[in-house]
């Protein structure tokens, strides 16, 4: 019922009552005038759509409306006298009269029901509560009847809506008829199991209910129980018949309400003669025609009401939609043209999507409550799903983009700021209302005249007769009769039907006359209200259409660097001007002439824009008859006032193609003095300021150039010789990549004839200008078309720390042995040069047998692999001004890798060994080299990688693959593991033994006889077996017996054979593997039985690390895919216990219904299926779920009842489930719960109570976090609907 119920929560949207969202200037915006339909809607107070729909239905019931208007002040009083003592003012009828007069006569888009609901005695919160429209219909009519007691209108509700039903019971023995009359206001008809209204009425008033068998009727005349027939007939038909459809039902199985959404048809005209007691009258006495359909959209706990109404008095202006007026071929052509011409909508940009939605509306505005639905229709996804995570609620998004959107109509509608809805986009006022409008109103602006012209939108021909409209709160939309059929079914479907007798004819003077029979004092009030509204609109339009312009006068500017610059630097040369944008360009020109008394010659007005390079001119306003609104002039627009040719003798190039670009021109610099004269000095590309020691560097200055100028013209403007070279920055390559130089790309000769726009140069881009002699210095290096610039600031340093021991840093190391020195370095310097300089300054001697290498250090102080000394600092990724460690050891070459390795287990920090290998080295050669370095031999070894948690992981399976092919990088750690390389696709499975007391007693005795006093006690038994608690729930136990490694291509039979080879199972004797059952464990519980002796483990979806359990059987077993193993146990009659469980294999391949299981269990015990009661045990909850037949809901599309399956929801019966059985022939106790179950439930309750106590003791912020975690919102309590009426008896 809320306008945005299906979009967002109320606090997340835009509150229609909040004035903060408005950005219009004119204060409170007046109500919008009526739309093209000439009908008035009703505002929604938050949850009053049910009230709005019923009020519109009563308004368009002419007989009800005229009966209400016939009550004069002498009968019901005046609202001005209600505060007087002893005055009996009937407020509800008076407010209803005023509301109806406002809906008929006042020129506004929607009326308010606030005064009416105040007369009901409702408070502000009542307007947001949801209620049923049928309940309101009865309560409102009752309140009107009580309010009109003692007046001439006290019986008009009774005359118009009340009918009579005759209920009869006929005795089949003596023929005696017992009859009772029943008055009705509306007929409540069934929807469930019925396909149409006629069928429901037939069941109510034609079909007879028989009293027979055990349900006999006591006849007063026969004085005994007899067979009888009960029936009902319509005895008296009212002029207006109201039908309420029972859409809402209650599911007693689920204990919840639900809505009937199936197809339910109803006719536009209905003959009630078959359902009446008297059938001798004329046909016109029994024929009714439909004139109102109240529709409910949503579910049984919330939704929205709107109404389809037939305009009997033809008060509205009905017209078909534009698409309906065009032939099919024209529609197809228009669609193809639209797809070809319209740019592709940027569905990921909410700004463009919302702007497109609003711009496509005829009124250029959208109700805020409907914006979310229109967004979903446009892109197929809601705001919350697509944009909320990144942009927040849609209301906040509109507020944050107030430069694009404007909220109008007191914040209820949103429009584009550059095109807000005003009188220029509204349809003309209806002709009935223009007579009441103020004749002195301002003339419409020119855009409206164009909109209303014959070339823009021809007035459609109105079809004759009354038509249908959809009144949805404030919105009124014309519809066709065929649209009613769409409300036969679905979540949005008909809820109440209103019929009127076809013999009720309207007088000719009532047609197209909204003032018909409206009291004169109400007509006068409406006329005064219209005059007031028109004055408010005129005032608002004048204020809201005022724009602030900035005028720039040509004498105050000069052309410099491709753009207009102020003649006086630092001064604001613009003049502010407030102007009505509905006026024309000629009016603006005249105003400026009057402001500039000394202006001579022609005056041109050109739209300007401030860019980083300066002021640039675009299009010139030529047509003086065009309004500023049509010319695209909005507030804060810049206008340049000049002669249209030149400024201070310089020709001005206008248009987007000549937009100036502000470039940073960089040149070589040889001294500090020049920097002060020519511009800023740059050190490299990431530092500014003076250069060190006055050495050579770069200087930069900002220059603007026209975007349409070629690169050759730019060179000429800079005054450079033709031999000069222009370069563009390649990218930021500073210290981030470990170097100090920067690269520039030389423009090829062909680019000299291309413009700056074509070269994609933009504001802020750098342009390096070099003369040929510049390459003679060490600063600039040319390599192909790339110029490398190395400035003195790029010559930085590296710190080298000497550690005499490779794993140094220990406590025993002497401080003087860890010496540090700084080595001057550049990004192009080789690391071997850095090492050589460090050795020289540290006065070390590098002997052939004791070399040194450079290593980086991470943030924890751990030494990283040695760096390749053949690379430069930049190529090796070493950052300048960081520390390298000089350690004993070899450095890898460019074709080599440095790897860490250990033997047996994952190495601890600093304990791994290192080795240098070729990248092309194979895994087998790598393993051989590592074994030789640690002094091991043999072939029973293989290599494994470390996984992400620094533990021994997967082996390197392909021994012939190279290290580079396996993507092994320098610094990676490998582990040498003992044992042969496992085959590909191997699985490591943990094996458990299922101990069944029936067959494993001998096995345990054998195991215990082998135990000695020296063996460990407790959880670990002989052969490494460990006991597990009772995990099966049937008094059995699981024992761990070891692990097996097996290929995933092995079959289940091969797995059983390998499991039997485990030492712990040497005493388990089975004839064949078919006497073994294999379970898969999940969470240390038996989950499923592995089926199929020849099925591979891969097809059984077993993965490495899976736990399996083997169970010894007394007979062979080969279960099919739909055979379920169950533990069944029969209840002990008269006791709360069961006999020992038995295994039962139930074949559910053909039938998995409850009846099939009951029949199977009955055959097993030799009992009748009807005498058995079954239930499934839930060991986690200590409860039993009874297994009984249930009826599933019929599918709407297939119209076929789904099969009942115990393998699916809600029971999900699977292998190992326990089924309890009650024989009702000898056991009257239908309760399956045992004493153990009650004790388990008590433990669960105690645990829950402890959790509650901990939650209450937790701080309040924890509760807030739980609330944010997504707890479901509680529904508001349902409040009874009531209307307070005074006493008038």
From TrEMBL:
Bias class Polar residues marks the residues at 432-442
- Which molecular function terms from Gene Ontology are attached? cysteine-type deubiquitinase activity
GO-annotated cellular components: cytosol; nucleus
Comp. bias intervals (Basic and acidic residues): 448-465, 1246-1258
Keywords in alphabetical order, please: Hydrolase
User: What name does this protein carry?
Assistant: Ubiquitin carboxyl-terminal hydrolase 40 isoform X1
Task: Supply the Pfam families for this chain.
Answer: UBL_USP40 (PF25822), UCH (PF00443)
Q: Where is the signal peptide?
A: none
Which segments carry the region annotation Disordered? 1-38, 417-476, 1246-1289
Q: Which PANTHER family match?
A: UBIQUITIN CARBOXYL-TERMINAL HYDROLASE, UBIQUITIN CARBOXYL-TERMINAL HYDROLASE 40
* Keyword Ribosomal protein found: no
Q: Name one GO biological process term.
A: protein deubiquitination
């Amino acid at each position: 019922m809320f306008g945005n119920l299906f979009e967002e929560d109320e606090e997340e949207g835009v509150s229609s009552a909040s004035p903060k969202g408005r950005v219009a200037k004119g204060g409170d915006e007046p109500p919008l005038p009526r739309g093209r339909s000439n009908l008035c809607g009703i505002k929604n107070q938050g949850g009053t759509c049910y009230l709005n729909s019923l009020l519109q239905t009563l308004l368009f019931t002419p007989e009800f409306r005229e009966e209400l208007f016939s009550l004069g002040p002498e009968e019901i009083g005046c609202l001005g006298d209600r505060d007087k003592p002893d005055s009996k003012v009937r407020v509800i009828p008076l407010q209803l009269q005023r509301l109806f007069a406002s809906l008929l006569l006042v020129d506004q888009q929607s009326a308010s029901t606030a005064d009416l609901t105040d007369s009901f005695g409702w408070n502000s919160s009542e307007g947001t509560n949801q209620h049923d429209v049928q309940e309101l219909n009865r309560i409102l009519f009752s309140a009107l009847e009580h309010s009109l007691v003692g007046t001439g209108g006290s019986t008009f509700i009774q005359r118009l809506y009340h009918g009579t039903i005759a209920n009869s019971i006929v005795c089949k023995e003596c023929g005696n008829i017992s009859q009772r009359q029943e008055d009705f206001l509306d007929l409540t008809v069934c929807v469930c199991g019925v396909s149409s209204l006629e069928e429901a009425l037939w069941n109510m008033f034609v079909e007879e209910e028989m009293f027979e068998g055990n349900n006999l009727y006591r006849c007063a005349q026969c004085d005994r129980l007899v067979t009888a027939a009960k029936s009902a007939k319509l005895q008296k038909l009212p002029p207006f018949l109201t039908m309420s459809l029972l859409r809402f039902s209650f599911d007693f199985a689920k204990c919840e309400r639900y809505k009937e959404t199936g197809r339910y048809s109803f006719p536009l005209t209905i003959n009630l003669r078959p359902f009446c007691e008297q059938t001798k009258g004329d046909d016109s006495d029994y024929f009714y025609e439909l004139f109102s359909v109240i529709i409910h959209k949503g579910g049984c706990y919330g939704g929205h009401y709107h109404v389809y109404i037939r305009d009997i008095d033809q008060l509205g202006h009905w017209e078909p939609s534009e698409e309906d007026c065009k032939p099919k071929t024209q529609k197809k052509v228009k669609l193809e043209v639209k797809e070809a011409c319209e740019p592709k909508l940027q569905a990921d940009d909410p700004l463009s999507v919302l702007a497109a939605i609003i711009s496509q509306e005829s009124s250029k505005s959208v109700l805020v409550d409907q914006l979310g639905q229109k967004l979903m229709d446009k892109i197929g996804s809601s705001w919350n799903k697509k944009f909320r995570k990144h942009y927040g609620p849609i209301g906040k998004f509109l507020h944050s983009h107030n430069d694009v959107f404007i909220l109008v109509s007191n914040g209820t509608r949103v429009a584009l700021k550059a095109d807000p809805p005003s009188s220029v986009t509204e349809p003309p006022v209806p002709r009935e209302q223009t007579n009441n409008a103020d004749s002195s109103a301002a003339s419409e602006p020119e855009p409206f005249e164009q909109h209303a012209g014959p070339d823009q939108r021809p007035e459609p021909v109105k079809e004759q007769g009354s038509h249908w409209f959809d009144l949805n709160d404030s919105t009124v939309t014309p519809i066709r009769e065929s649209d009613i059929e769409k409300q036969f079914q679905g979540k949005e479907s008909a809820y109440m039907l209103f019929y009127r007798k076809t013999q009720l004819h309207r007088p000719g003077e009532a047609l197209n006359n909204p003032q018909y029979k409206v009291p004169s004092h109400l007509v006068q009030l409406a006329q005064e209200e219209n005059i007031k509204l028109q004055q408010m609109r005129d005032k608002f339009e004048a204020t809201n259409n005022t724009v602030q312009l900035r005028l720039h006068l040509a004498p105050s500017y000069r052309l410099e660097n491709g753009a207009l610059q102020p003649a006086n630097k630092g001064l604001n040369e613009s003049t502010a001007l407030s102007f009505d944008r509905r006026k024309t360009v000629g009016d603006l020109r005249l105003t400026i002439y009057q402001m500039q008394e000394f202006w001579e010659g022609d005056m041109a007005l050109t739209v300007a824009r401030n860019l980083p390079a300066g002021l640039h001119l675009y299009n010139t306003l030529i047509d003086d008859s065009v309004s500023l609104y049509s010319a695209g002039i909005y507030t804060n627009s810049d206008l340049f006032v000049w002669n249209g040719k030149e400024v201070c003798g310089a020709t001005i190039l206008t248009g987007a193609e000549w937009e100036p670009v502000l470039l940073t021109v960089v040149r070589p610099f040889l001294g500090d003095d020049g920097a002060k004269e020519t511009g800023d000095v740059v050190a490299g590309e990431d530092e500014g300021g003076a250069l060190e020691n006055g050495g050579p560097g770069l200087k930069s200055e900002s220059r603007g150039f026209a975007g349409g100028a070629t690169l050759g013209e730019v060179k000429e403007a800079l005054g450079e010789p033709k031999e000069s070279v222009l370069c563009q920055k390649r990218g930021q390559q500073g210290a981030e990549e470990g170097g100090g130089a920067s690269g520039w790309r030389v423009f090829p000769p062909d680019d000299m004839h291309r413009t700056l726009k074509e070269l994609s140069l933009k504001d802020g881009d750098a342009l390096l200008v070099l003369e040929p002699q510049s390459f003679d210095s060490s600063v600039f290096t040319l390599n192909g078309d790339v110029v490398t610039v190395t400035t003195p600031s790029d010559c930085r340093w590296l710190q080298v720390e000497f550690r005499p021991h490779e794993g140094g840093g220990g406590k025993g190391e002497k401080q003087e042995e860890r010496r540090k020195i700084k080595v001057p370095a550049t990004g192009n310097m080789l690391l071997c040069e850095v090492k050589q300089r460090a050795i020289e300054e540290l006065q070390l001697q590098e002997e052939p047998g004791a070399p040194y290498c450079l290593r980086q250090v991470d943030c924890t102080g751990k030494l990283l692999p040695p760096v390749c000394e053949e690379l430069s600092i930049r190529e090796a990724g070493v950052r300048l001004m960081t520390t390298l460690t000089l350690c004993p050891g070899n450095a890898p070459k460019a074709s080599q890798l440095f790897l860490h390795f250990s033997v047996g287990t994952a190495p601890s920090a600093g304990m791994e060994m290192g080795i240098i290998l070729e990248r092309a080295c194979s895994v087998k050669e790598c393993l051989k080299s590592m074994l030789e370095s640690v002094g091991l031999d043999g072939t029973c070894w293989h290599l494994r990688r470390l996984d992400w948690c620094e533990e021994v992981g997967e082996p390197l399976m392909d021994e012939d693959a190279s290290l580079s092919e396996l993507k092994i990088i320098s610094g990676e750690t490998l582990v040498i593991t003992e044992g042969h390389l496992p085959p590909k696709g191997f699985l490591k499975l943990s094996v458990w033994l299922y101990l069944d007391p029936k067959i494993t007693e001998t096995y345990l005795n054998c195991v215990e006889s082998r135990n000695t006093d020296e063996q460990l006690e407790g959880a670990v038994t002989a052969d490494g077996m460990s006991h597990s608690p009772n995990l099966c729930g049937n008094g059995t136990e699981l024992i761990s017996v070891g692990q097996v490694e097996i290929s995933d291509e092995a079959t289940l039979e091969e797995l059983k054979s390998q499991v039997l080879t485990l030492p712990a199972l040497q005493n388990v004797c089975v004839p064949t593997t078919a006497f073994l059952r294999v379970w898969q464990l999940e969470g240390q519980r038996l989950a499923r039985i592995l089926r199929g002796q020849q099925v591979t483990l891969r097809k059984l979806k077993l993965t490495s690390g899976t736990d399996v359990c083997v169970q010894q059987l007394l007979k062979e077993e080969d279960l099919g895919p739909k055979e379920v193993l169950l533990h069944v146990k029969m209840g002990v009659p008269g006791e709360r216990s069961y006999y020992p469980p038995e295994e039962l294999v139930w074949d559910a391949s053909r039938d998995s219904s409850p009846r099939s299981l009951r029949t199977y269990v009955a055959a097993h015990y030799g009992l009748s299926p009807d005498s058995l009661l079954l239930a499934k045990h839930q060991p986690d909850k200590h409860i039993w779920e009874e297994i009984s037949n249930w009826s599933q809901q019929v599918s709407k599309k297939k119209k076929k009842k789904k099969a009942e399956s115990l393998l699916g929801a809600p029971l999900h019966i699977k292998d190992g489930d326990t089924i309890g059985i009650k024989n009702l022939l000898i056991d009257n106790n239908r309760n399956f719960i045992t004493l153990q179950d009650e004790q388990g439930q008590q433990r669960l309750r105690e645990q829950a109570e402890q959790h509650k106590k901990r939650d209450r003791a937790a701080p309040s912020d924890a509760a807030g976090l739980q609330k944010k975690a997504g707890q479901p919102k509680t529904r508001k309590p349902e409040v009874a609907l009531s209307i307070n009426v005074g006493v008038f008896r």
